[in-house]
Amino acid sequence: MTGGDDEPPFRPRPGRSRREAPPPSFIRKVRKLAAQGPGAGAGRRGAKHRFNASGRGRTMVGARALSGRWASAQPGARRVVVKARVVKLAKAGGGPAAHLAYLQRDGVTRDGERGQLYAAGEDRADGRAFLARTEGDRHQFRFIVAPEDGAELADLRAFTRDLMAEVECDLGVPLDWVAVDHFNTAHPHSHVVLRGRDRSGQDLFIAGDYIAHGIRERASELVTLELGPESAQEIRRKLEGEVDQDRFTRIDRALVKEAKGHIVDLRPGGGHELWSFDRQLRLARLSTLERMGLAQAESASVWRLKPELEPTLRRLGERGDIVKALNQALADRGLERPVETLTLHDPAPETPVVGRVIGKRLTDELGDRLALIVDGIDGRVHHLPGGDVGETEAALVGALVEVRRASDVRPADRVISALAGETDGLYRPSEHRRRVEAEGRLSGVEADGYVEAHVRRLEALRRAGIVERLDLDRWRIPEDFDQRVAAHEARRGPAITIRILSALDLEGQVGSDGATWLDRQLVGAGRIQPVQMGFGSEVERALAARRDRHIAQGDADPTPTGVRYRAGLLAELEGRELDRVGSGLAKDGGLPFRRAADGETIKGVFKDKLSLASGQYALVERTRDFTLVPWRPVVEPMRGQTVTGVMQGASISWRLGRERGLGL
Hints:
The chain is α+β, with helices and mostly antiparallel strands. The chain is built from 20 helices and 23 strands. A hairpin with a 2-residue loop joins strand 19 and strand 20.
């Protein structure tokens, strides 16, 4: 093809196809790997699926992954265990406050004193101010930092501050955090609570791999810098200490990793190089595992590991921690109990446990669920699985409680179901009261209070859509009532429900002028029979002492067949205590006290909750006086506001808003 004489010749210039992307440069590859975090550079699978993989700190972890220079993996690096949890505050309720309070509990310092909050620039941080700043935060970070050699650090608080300064540098934003140091375990450790916002108020998102690896890296560097690299002698001593332990150890982890088809071959020249010391450790540990039924010798230096080795050892480790907690709780109260009486429950037992709270522990130190340690009247010491920390914190050490499985049908539910089964699915409070009096168990105000407790239960179930109120004296009970109630309780969440029987210990109840739990055991129906050992023996002695006190005060008379108590004794004791407490409050507050009468409408400002021997009471302040009426959880959100209720015997029917109806 040619053009005219005046046109230059046409010469094609082939270029790069638009479909062909330019080869990525080295810098581009580095940036891509760094942005992806250690999952790409270190070969760890699933890193991009971790919590907030694109959050702050990914650059630091990505750089370590690219270089392969993980400080914690270097010879001589000091080990640090870091546990972390991200808590969604929208679902936490009162958990953050209760969690912070529990971390500051008694007995966690070197001297057994109460834990002290601190921050970057404060030795005594204000927990309430910190919680106030967290209002509106979407989430919260919680860390436990436990250096293996924490006992050798000169100042654990200074170490934690240095660590958080490093974290702040890696994340590139100023952090708002508080911490508490604990020395109540073999390894001193720090609990750090970090806000989900930085100090400028911006939401804080941390890359999952930094949470999992970056903090441990920084902690290991700091401990190694202070104490120096770990020597071969130290490593040997620590590993030798793991040979006989009933938990999953570093030696077990190495054995599981080296096993091929659950077979561990430790014969010389078996395909891997081992130091003689490492081989001796493995053989010694395998002998221990054989005694535990978790390994079997196939031939000389060839062993078969059981598939359930790791989960079994982890469960044994958890069990060991629980047993230590039980023994510590007993020692703190100066109690001795036979080993065979220690009872671990998971899940909660079918039979309710009644006893005295002697200790509490977080089932997960990063979470909001507390386990209770209860010295039962059945002569056993029970470790009961975790309930909501807010509810469990209300059960103070020394208090008498009843703990039951959350999905259990309550005694009141069984009574309601039985009565409804006899009357074509109807429950009538008036008929229930008539039966109670006919049986001779209770009368007057006591019978009213007993029946009213069942009505309150029905009100709660009505709001859940399980029963129907036809009128003031008729309730429709469905045929599948028991199953629906059990499902309702299971949906409520906690593994256990806790009922506080008395905030007073046995000694305080014996000398009290109120209607105590001991009195209800002596006078009321359905007395629980204690076992004549352990705490059960203490309860029997306390019942005898309380009985003698009533006889001495003229409230009971001995008879040939037992003891006859004055009619209406429980109501009279309750009245005596209310008059005494009310008179004392009147002197301090200026307003006179007036006891509420049966059928009276109570209207005033709910000021406070009081825990007395007779139970828990709401202080309601009116224009010219104040009164004390039974407290119920439903009224607690109305603190400082006007409430209305109607006294019904020994109980009260709260009216909290027209839209909610009566009897709340």
